[in-house]
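Hi P.,

Sorry for the delay on this. The queue was packed all week, but I finally got your sequence through. Input first:
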Amino acid sequence: MTREPSEEDILRPLKHTSMWYFVALGIAGIGALIWVAGYLWQLQHGLAVTGLSDWGSGGGVTWGMYIGLFIWWVGIAHGGIILSAAVRLLGMDRYQPVARLAELLTIGALSMAGLMILVHTGRPDRLVWSVVVSYTETVHSSPLVWDVTVITLYFVLTATYLALTLRYDISRLRDDLPGLFTPFYEVVTLGYTEEEDPIVERMVWWLALAIIILAPLLLHGGVIPWLFQLMPSMPGWFDSVQGPQFLTIALSSAISGVIILSYVMRARYDWYHLLSDNVLRGLTNWLGLFVLLFLWLQLQQVISGVFAAPISVGTVTGAMLGHPVYWFAIGVSVLILALIFASAIRPSIWSPTLAVVFSVGILSATLAEKVLFLVEGLQYPGFGLYAAIPGAYFPSLVEISAFVGTVSMVTIFFLVVLKVFPVIELHAVESHDGDHGHAEVAD
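Then the structure:
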C-alpha cells in the first residue's frame, strides 16, 4: 500500500540525527583536511609541487586536474540548475522532490568550481587583483574573468531561485524548525505575506525560463567551451562540436549526482515514497539519453579527426584514440548506455542500486574525459616547438587531494543543510498525487 508523504517526512533530517550522520561528517571532514594539508603545502612551496609549471622543453602541461575539476564541477552545477528549472518550467511534477536537491547541488558544485580557479592561480591575491581591482579592463580579454563572471551570475540566479522557494516553506514550517537558526529564518522570510505566493511562483517561473535560455549561451553551453574551441593553435580543442558536447557532459554528470543524492537520502530518511523507484527510474532514462548524445558527438569528433584530417588534427586524434584513459571513459559510457537500454526493454534488469552504479561510472568517465581533453590539447599544439620532448602528465598527490577535498566539502555542505531547512520542498508533499510508491516501476 502506498504511503502518503507528510510534513513530518521532510522535517525528519532536521529532528533526527543518527550515528551514520556523524560518521559521514567525520569521513568528509578528514577528506577536507587532506586537501587543506595539500593546499598549504602548495602555498608554501609554490605551484611547482603539482608539476603543472613544466611545459615545452621540460615536458608536461600547464593545466591538469585543477582545471579538469573546474570543468567537471561547473558541468555538474550547470546540469543541476537546468534540471531544476526544467521541473518548474515544464511542470514535471514527477521530479519535484529532486528539484531542491538539484539546486543545492548547483550551489555546492559552483563553489568548488570557483575554488579550483582560486587554487590554480597559485597565489590567491592574484585573483583579487586580476578580477576585482581590474575587472573593467580584464573583462574584455581575460578568459579567467569570463569564467568568474559567468559562475557568479549562475550562483546569484540559483541562490535567488532557492531563497524564493524557501520563503514559502519556512513560513509554514517555522514552528517545527530548529531555534538555533532563527536569525537565518528571519532574514529569508523578511516581509513575507501569503499574498506574495502567486507573485513568487511567477518570478520563479521567469527565472527558470531565463536559466533555460541562457544554458546554451553561457557557462557549459557557451563561455567555457568557447575558451577552448575558438583556439585554432590547439587542434584538439578547436572544434565547433565542443559546445553541445560540454552540455551533454554537464547534464549527464548532474543527473548522476542527483541520482546518488536521492538514493542516499531515501535510504537514510525512509523517503522511498518521496524519492521513489519511479523517480530514480525516470532519472536513469534521462541519463541514458544524454550519454547517448555525448557518445554521438564523440563519434562526430573522431570521424572528422581520422578521415582526411589536417596533420595536426590527425595527430591529436591519434594520440587520443591511443590513450587508455579515453577508452576507459568511452567504454564505461557505452556499457552504461547498453545496460540502460536493456533495462528499458526488460525492466527487471533495473534497480536503484544499479542506477547508482551507473551514476558513479558516468561521473568517473566525464572527469577522466575532461582531464584528458585538457592535457592532450596542450601536449599537441598546432605548432609543436618541442615535439622531440612531448612530455607526459599524471595528477600529483596535491591535485588528487583537491578531488578528495572538493567531494568532501560538497558532502559537508549537504550534511549541514540537512539540519537547517528541508531539502525537499513542501510543495512536493502538498501536490503529491500518490503515484510514486516504493514498489512502483516506470513503464
